[in-house]
């Protein structure tokens, strides 16, 4: 099994694909201080999936901002060494 590498504050973008925005989005989802986060049924490239989204009300019109998209069956997810993840 491949070793999982978590983001560390000393990492550079050469070490990780995690951007500051992704880290902020993850914190928004996990810290519980926001009440506008939802699981949203949607489509990715025409295929059914779901996303974690932030929903805001902009003058009576709802805006949906995707934060993270669920992995679909045809996605191939690998680590930086090319090791494919296993998830059933």
Distinctive features:
88 residues, 3 strands, globular
What's the count of strands? 3
The H/E string reads HEEE
Low-confidence stretches: none
- Major sheet: size, sense and barrel closure? 3 strands, antiparallel
Task: Write structural notes for this entry.
The protein has a 3-stranded antiparallel β-sheet with strand order 1-2-3, covered by helices on one side. The radius of gyration is 16 Å and the shape is globular. The mean pLDDT is 84. It has a domain at 33-69. The chain has one helix at 20-30; strands at residues 37-44, 47-58, 61-69. The chain is mainly β. Strand 1 (37-44) and strand 2 (47-58) form a beta hairpin.
Can you summarize this structure?
This protein is mostly beta strands.
Topology record:
Elements (H helix, E strand, L loop, with lengths): L19 H11 L6 E8 L2 E12 L2 E9 L19
Antiparallel strand pairs: 1-2, 2-3
């Amino acid at each position: 099994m491949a070793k999982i590498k978590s983001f560390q504050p000393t990492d550079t973008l050469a070490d990780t694909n995690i951007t500051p925005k992704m880290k902020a989005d993850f914190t928004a989802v996990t810290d519980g201080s926001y009440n506008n986060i939802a699981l949203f049924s949607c489509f990715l490239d025409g295929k059914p999936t779901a996303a974690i989204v932030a929903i805001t009300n902009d003058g009576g019109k709802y805006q949906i901002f995707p934060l993270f998209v669920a992995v679909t069956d045809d996605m191939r997810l690998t680590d930086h060494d090319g090791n494919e993840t296993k998830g059933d």
